[in-house]
Design a protein that fits this description.
5-stranded antiparallel beta sheet; Immunoglobulin-like; single chain; flat
Length: 446
């Protein structure tokens, strides 16, 4: 008998423990409030001193309904009044590709958050079906250095909602040390109003502006040496403060929003108010070469070629070309640049080598894609005691899948073909509907 009594007692203890555990588990998930048992005396009076509130004692603490106003506006409840205070202590903790958004509400609410890179919040939606006082939402797979917009909608136990709109944060950016591309298609012309320099801006998203420095004796590969004559995101400017028959050296640097400058593009010209431009052909190719005892390499995609004086490279004009060398001078402003001439001997572009070594100890210069295929002369220059000196030279045999000239020619061929077809159709229309009916009418009368 004692044995059965012991078994019954054990089963009763397990049953009571399971009930308590279920209650505790239910209280710890779902609505995040303190559920108090036995605090509600059901006397119709909401006694806050006894710990009664709407959530622990809804029978006594029914929301107070505010009657409609005389002008016909609807009433409200105490619940809707506190909905004005559900986004407290809102904070955003950002990293490179994630963000944690936290806030508190004075009453339990469930929330819905929308976010995106535009105010339309189309990148994602997160919903929390639990009623909480402390809210935390983590957004992942975000883009670094990007501005995000988000909104939060809160809903209380009565189904009332309120929203917080037009909130923003920006994710962190990794330290950007990559210089932007150089301005391309740099040209110079001289006229009565001065010297006009034109160029094409880089296409990178973080491009900020172009800085143009002018010097009177030589080029400088620094965006801070010389006279600043232009700074902006335009594509040309006219330098009016120039003297006739004087030669001017311009260095053009593009800058990104992180503060990095490109290696620089070069152009020089003798000011001639009559407009007799000599840029591109005024620099007579140097006959003698003073090669450096250093390695020069030409690379394109995954291909690399040794660059010796007189080398010829068969390359694609549809991909950038890189020239690098382990030469590095300790002399201040001992700049080095590459010069590209077309088959007529006219300079089409000049670019400085970078001023910073890469991880392998090389300095580089990048030559953008070519507009046209053909044969190009490549020369590398550096200053020696202030005088330009050729240290390497070679040739690029450039091929393109479709050159710009061929594309333009194809466009005009199609254009004129359409015009001819339209003229023929117009002629046939007048022939069959205007001219022939009149001829038949006259013939019929006769």
């Amino acid at each position: 008998m004692k044995k059965y009594r012991l078994i019954k007692t054990l089963f009763l203890a397990i049953f009571l423990f399971s009930i308590n555990f279920s209650i505790l588990n239910a209280a710890s998930s779902g609505i995040d409030v303190n559920l108090k048992v036995g605090e509600c005396n059901n006397n119709g009076i909401c006694e806050e001193g006894r710990g009664e509130d709407f959530f622990s004692c809804p029978a006594d603490c029914t929301p107070i309904v505010v009657p409609p106003t005389p002008d016909g506006h609807g009433g409200t409840t105490t619940g809707s009044l506190v909905m004005d205070n559900v986004f407290n202590n809102l904070t955003v903790e950002v990293s490179y590709n994630s963000a944690i958004i936290k806030w508190k509400s004075v009453i339990p609410t469930m929330s819905s958050m929308k976010w995106g890179t535009n105010p339309d919040y189309k990148d994602g939606v997160l919903r929390n079906i639990n009623f909480l006082l402390d809210h935390k939402v983590e957004l992942t797979n975000l883009k670094e250095g990007t501005l995000y917009y988000f909104s939060i909608q809160a809903e209380n136990l009565l189904g009332e909602t309120t929203s917080l709109e037009n909130q923003i944060f920006r994710t962190l950016s990794l330290l950007d040390t990559t210089p932007p591309s150089n301005p391309t298609n740099v040209k110079a012309s001289s006229g009565p109003s001065g010297i006009t320099i034109s160029w094409d801006n880089p296409t990178e998203e973080d491009f900020y502006y172009i800085r143009v420095m002018r010097n009177d004796i030589r080029y400088y590969g620094s965006p801070f040496i010389g006279r600043l004559v232009y700074e902006g995101d335009g594509r040309y400017f006219t330098d009016s403060n120039v003297i006739k028959n004087n030669k001017y050296f311009y260095s053009l640097f593009s800058r990104d929003r992180a503060g990095n400058y490109s290696s620089g593009s070069l152009v020089s010209i003798i000011h001639n108010p009559l407009g007799l431009d000599n840029w591109g052909s005024d620099l007579t190719p140097v006959e003698t070469v003073n090669p450096l005892p250093n390695v020069f390499t030409v690379t394109q995609n995954s291909s690399a070629y040794d660059f010796y004086p007189g080398s010829v490279f068969h390359l694609s004009g549809d991909e950038p070309i890189n020239i690098k060398t382990n030469y590095y001078s300790k002399i201040k402003n001992d700049d080095m640049w590459v010069e590209i001439r077309n088959s007529d001997g006219i300079i089409i572009n000049q670019y400085f080598f970078s001023r910073i070594k890469d991880k392998d100890g090389f300095i580089n210069v990048t030559i953008p894609i070519f507009e046209r295929g053909g044969y190009y002369r490549v020369a590398v220059y550096k200053y020696n005691s202030g005088a330009a000196q050729m240290v390497n030279y070679g040739s690029f045999d450039i091929t393109k899948a479709t050159s710009v000239g061929e594309t333009v020619w194809s466009f005009w061929c199609v254009f004129w073909l359409i015009i001819i077809i339209l003229l023929i159709l117009l002629f046939l229309f007048f022939l069959f509907f205007k001219i022939l009916p009149k001829i038949f009418k006259r013939f019929h009368k006769k």
